[in-house]
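Repro case for the chain-ordering regression, as requested:
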Amino acid sequence: MKYDTMFGLFGALFSVFYFIAVEENFALVTYHPRLHQWVWGTDLAITGPAMYWYGWIGTAFVSAALITFAVHAIAARKLIPHWVGWTIPMLISGAFAYTLRGFFFH
Amino acid sequence: MGALSLLMALIKSLSTDKLDTRPISSLNISIKSESAKPKAGARLITFLLICHGLMAVALLGAISHQTMALHLPARKKGAFIGRMRAVNPAVYTNAVIILYLIVFILGAIIYPAYRVSVRTWLEAARLMTLSGSFEAKEQLVTLGLGLLPFYWHIWRSQQSDLHTRIARGVTTSFLCAVIWGSFLVGHVLNNVRGLFGQ
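-- result from build under test --
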């Protein structure tokens, strides 16, 4: 496959952008479950809660895909080392554990 | 390790007296009467929730087989555990990816029902550890989603050098831990009113 050597880079970038999207609340879309309404971007809660999770995934996916394609276009022949694909998601999962500690140690 | 520590914190919290033990009636939470007929939408959510759980069981089986066969390979097919370890771990890759996507999509469809009904109940009942467990599940499962292309690539690769073996081991173990942790959290939350609603 043409892009398979870039999958490690995509995984790493996806995790980094997802973490940034969650922490800074950069959501590509917002869903209002009580109204069954989708809104572009990060929207405030109207009636009931607003759901940003879908938007965070969208932000991370689009950002990571764009940069992966760009890197592939610039340095197509360079192999991304395997460790990039797993070390960064592991570090990001540790960062999430740290940010969520308040739920468990209160 | 992140998923493991969160799971341990969850188990620890369940064994302490931090949970709100007041009766439901004193929490000012409206509960539908037992005789109220569920709407069609609620029945569909229940159906999808059951499908989500069943698919998750299949996913657990696939990823557990692959992880065991990878880390504890057996040359001879012996008894039950031996046969489980004696499989070729690479054959589970596509099944894990497809099942992961199905479980993820089903979870994403039923998520609004959780957000509106269950999470508000958890917050009102001050079950913050359980609410946080779902938050952790949400984030780790999404990280696992982003890892799937890389996971597919390293299992498809014919290379067997040290870097590839380490990448396979860590990625597969991470996905296994995330799937097991998510399954247990989902199972507890699915029964939360029965477990903590008195």
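Ordering looks correct now. The mean pLDDT of chain A is 91.
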